[in-house]
Request: fold
Amino acid sequence: MEIKFAEVSDAPIIHDLMIKAFMEYKDEVPPSSALEETVQSVLIALKAGEQGLISYVDNQPVGMVRF
Reply:
């Protein structure tokens, strides 16, 4: 496993992983606001100073965290 700091250009990867992770909670009450995020909202957050880490296994993204 490799863990890398996210770049602004990684917004689509972060969004994809986040949506996959939270889809199982789509019918919860209240639903997770993560499912309302877009690639654009992730991009804006990263440009505004938010940071993230992406974990890779065999060069494939498998997990992420935003902070």
About this structure: The mean pLDDT is 96.
